[in-house]
Amino acid sequence: MKKTLLFSALLATALGQAHAQSGLKPVINQAADAIESKVIAWRRDLHEHPELGNQEFRTAGIVAEHLKKLGYEVQEKIAVTGVVGVLKGGKPGPVVALRADMDGLPVTERVDVPFKSKVTTEFNNQKTGVMHACGHDSHVAILMGVAEVLASVKKDLAGTVKLIFQPAEEGVYTGGTFGANRMVEEGVLENPKVDAIFGLHINSQTEVGTIRYRPGATMAAVDQLTIKLKGKQTHGANPWSGVDPIVTASQIVMGLQTIVSRNVNITENPAVVTVGAIHGGIRYNIIPESLEMIGTIRTFGDEQQALVHRRIKEISNHIAESAGAKADVEIGIGYPATVNDPALTDKMIPTLEALAGKDKVLITPVATGAEDFSYFQKKIPGFFFFLGGMAKGKSPYDVAPHHTPDFYIDESGFTLGVKSLSHLVVDYMAMNAPQVSSPKTKKTAK
Ligand SMILES: [Zn+2]
Ligand SMILES: [Zn+2]
User: What is the pLDDT of residues 316-331, one digit of tens each?
Assistant: First the structure.
């Protein structure tokens, strides 16, 4: 009897909290609609003033000031320019993180908009424009919007929100760790310990109003390949007197093609091995002593990655050996695969479907690009999705892809972004609300 009563009480509490949280959605939607023009204005300002990785000083300043004004506990200069804002809701519950990346790219903008970037810089010894050519300006503006929306319902939030504004997603060329990896190293997922993380990427080739996602492996792990080949130099007229690294490199390039076609189980996940450059030789009648090949490797899981790396080494070393040459294979490890936690994805998709409409939430093929959101997902369950940023009626084949001078984002998709992230937060909190309502019960975040 007592047990039944207790159970009923618990159930009532859980249901009550879930109900209270879902009751927040109309308020959240109203708040998100009301600040649409502000979000667009923030984005235009950020777009006009893009900053490269680890140089997002102006952006970080705007974000920090905004969060402080809203009453967030703010930490700055994490992983160089990162900003973290913590908002403690009025009720106990889990800690949910949301992430936006802040950096632009060395691309010269060609789009004719009033807020076109005129910023220039020197990059890799070349003069170049700087542009938000991946849409990270949208991410920052959307998350600033979410910050404001969630602050307005603070007392009803059953848990804590941690907003992570991250630098250098596109990488830096100064060595060392950076971006999400460095933020994790500097403890961004601790104090308070984060239970789950959500993030989105605007997409220039997905129609406004549409959300795309994939359970499990979504974006690739990216590793960099360098093969140094040493042969024996000789006169081009007497190849038999030397060991030709050019012929050996050609065999290796062909041999590497068999990794994807003959070693990888492509019914599970694709993989890519690309040789992007071969540098060697100086004159038509000299067989050079050595050459260097560089390339990129894309894989979608730890096991597959290990297999591809192993086969690259075996093939390169043994072909070189068979020619009497020596191969020195180096694989630089880059971002891990972006893997959506299957259980978390399953739980959260109904939230996005209820918001955008079932027919507007679509499963997307794997992408062979990479995204350093993966570093958060390596530590805690995370879910990353793509938000439509292409004007309605356009074809994805006619619009500019990311990282190009004509890259363009239709701003009418932002409000769905603000609502998506906010709804994910309140629904996750409702699903993970504490099970015992007694005020004496000590609660610890899991
Ligand atoms: Zn990018
Ligand atoms: Zn990006």
Answer: 999 999 999 999 999 9
